[in-house]
Amino acid sequence: MLGHQDVITKEEAEKIIEGLNEIKIDYQSGIFEPDYPSEDIHYAIENQLISKIGSLGKKLHTGRSRNDQVGTDIRIWLRKSIYEIDGLLFSFQKALLKIAQQNINVLIPGYTHLQRAQPLSLSHHILAYLEMFQRDRERLNEVLNRVNISPLGAAALAGTKINIDRYMTAQELGFK
Questions:
Q1: For the chain, N or C: smaller number of CB within 10 Å?
Q2: pLDDT 10s digits, 62-94
Q3: Which residues contact 71 (CB under 8 A, 6 or more apart)?
């Protein structure tokens, strides 16, 4: 994005991207293990990038603050977690539906105020839980809509004067 916006040259952008790709490979192969004294992953990566490509690596975080980088990380993690939880809930709902379909003719006592009331179908009772979990999935989707907005580029307080394209980075990271 910085290269696209002419904040840095296209050549500088390419060198930074190459360095980051090397760091990714190093991380995946266990060569690069971010650890103390790095205050966060961004600091660790920036230091590693500087060691690979020199002072150009210091331009990596131009137009962004640690605050919005960490906020972005958290939102990416939350988004992934919401998708995983939703998938698990959906699988659980399918299992409940299968059990309900297998027990259509099974009757159980219904209770109200801790007293037996009318007989009801076990399937009906199970489907009530399926609906409860559907409401949970809907709530997760509402949270996802709030989480899926990129804070990257908001900077520490009131944005930046640097000509960044927040929408481009948001799109690259899969945000709305």
A1: C
A2: 988 888 898 999 999 999 999 999 999 999 999
A3: 151, 152, 154
